[in-house]
From TrEMBL:
Pfam families: DUF2374. InterPro entries: CHP02808. Keywords: Membrane, Transmembrane, Transmembrane helix. It comes from the Bacteria. The chain crosses the membrane at residues 12-36. NCBIfam families: short_TIGR02808. This is TIGR02808 family protein.
Length: 45
């Protein structure tokens, strides 16, 4: 593996970690908000 390939794979690897963590956090937050909204009283009186 050349130095360029090594650099590319390491940059992709280190860039993927925060993307995976943040997208997982956002997905869990969205699912939780959706589940909480199912039990919310929809009528305002």
């Amino acid at each position: 593996m050349s130095t360029l390939e090594w650099v590319i794979w390491h940059v992709l690897g280190y860039a993927a970690m925060p993307v995976i963590i943040l997208s997982g956090f956002a997905a869990v937050a969205a699912i939780c908000i959706w589940l909480l909204s199912l039990g919310k009283d929809k009528e305002l009186s």
